[in-house]
């Protein structure tokens, strides 16, 4: 399989049968050849409408943060979600829904072959590390998932609700976490 298989319709038909009725499938955006990947929770209304993850208000926050730390959101990173379709009423996905979408996410990771994965928010953190803990406990710390370095960060939607730039604020901490991600990528001589 090639990286173009990331959006194959037959995969979406097989794996997106957990929500009735199934909303539009949102696969990913960015560079599928990048060695840096970011995984969020699930598409929102704007993402569902446009068919790309992180293109609404949260996406603008994410893109701005990436730009500030020197990561190009089009060429240096591949961005996707745990869930490939929007949960009803934009609620948090259930464990059963995540389990049904997980094979697709694992398939994406195998195709992209990232050296580093950024976990945006608690759902991504819990899905990868299989622990239920607050994002505030693990954000900004390097973790390991199947031999891949992972960095949990606050979800950009959380930053929208906490927009302060003060020292120690979620926004400032996330910026710092993404600088650490950039440094790690530089050690791999990727960025």
From TrEMBL:
SUPFAM superfamilies the record matches: Uracil-DNA glycosylase-like (SSF52141)
Record GO biological process: DNA repair
Swiss-Prot/TrEMBL keywords: 4Fe-4S, DNA damage, DNA repair, Hydrolase, Iron, Iron-sulfur, Metal-binding, Nucleotidyltransferase, Transferase
InterPro entries: UDG_Type-4/5 (IPR051536), Ura-DNA_glyco_family4 (IPR005273), Uracil-DNA_glycosylase-like (IPR005122), Uracil-DNA_glycosylase-like_sf (IPR036895)
Top enzyme category: hydrolase
Domain of life: Bacteria
Catalytic reactions on record: Hydrolyzes single-stranded DNA or mismatched double-stranded DNA and polynucleotides, releasing free uracil
Signal sequence interval, chain numbering: none
Residue span(s) of domain Uracil-DNA glycosylase-like: 27-179
Name this protein carries in UniProt: Type-4 uracil-DNA glycosylase
Organism (species): Prochlorococcus marinus (strain MIT 9211)
